[in-house]
Amino acid sequence: MSSLAFTPGQLAKNAPERGQRFPWKKEIVTTIFWIGEKPAPKNPVPNRVSSWDPDWTKNYGGVDDPASANRSNYIPAKFTPRLNPFYCALPYNDKAKEGHRPEAPRVVPWFNESYQGPAVSTCKGRWVAIRKGNRVAYAQWEDAGPFRTDHWQYVFGNERPKPNLNKGAGLDVSPAVRDYLGLEPTDVTDWRFVDFSEVPRGPWSTLGENNTFVINDRKKGEALVEKLGTILPH
């Protein structure tokens, strides 16, 4: 038992609350990033691409301009995004150049249920709840970072984020999440993974070809049309 080396209260502190599959990660330094962001001293990696999408900016429809003057209703004023504007990054990538990282099947809790073959990430698109005060936003995990892509011990375990140039940031969130929660450029939030069944409708449920709500609503619409086609006379 001694090899487990849990600190007193660690298990209780990180245990999921009743009815929740995943526990909250509390008081995590949170920074803002955006699709199309150019590299900067504290963000050396440009966000034209993501860990899982080589055409991220193009697929989104343009740069997700973070300037409040250039935004309206959680999206850029100039265009309607083709991907969910509520997105985030966590410092783990389950993909390797070929297939998945060797630890991924063991550490990603939903790996088996989400597995779609060696070319597809099991993490991309996963829903995350992000809490600031009494407000909770929901976002889809769409990139790996900040800074690291291998810290599964934090993302799925009990470790804290590693020190980095952004005060030990362990979560990047999009301008839409920032605006919904009223975050500063560097802030502190709580976050946890959520099953899709736990995600309520909100501004995060309306846009995006990658958005589970949009995909499901489209399927329901197609099924209804198909059903009506069999009922109505031709």
Task: Walk me through this protein's architecture.
It is a single chain. The chain starts with 9 loop residues before the first helix and ends with a helix. The protein is globular and about 60 Å long. A hairpin with a 2-residue loop joins strand 5 (127-132) and strand 6. The protein has a single domain, classed as RlpA-like domain (Barwin-like endoglucanases), CATH 2.40.40. The protein has helices at residues 10-14, 56-60, 104-107, 111-114, 152-155, 175-181, 212-231, and strands spanning 25-32, 71-72, 75-76, 87-90, 127-132, 135-144, 171-173, 186-193. The longest helix is centred in the last third of the chain and has 20 residues, at 212-231. The chain has a six-stranded mixed β-barrel with strand order 1-7-4-6-5-8. Strands 2-3 form a two-stranded antiparallel sheet. It is of the alpha+beta class.
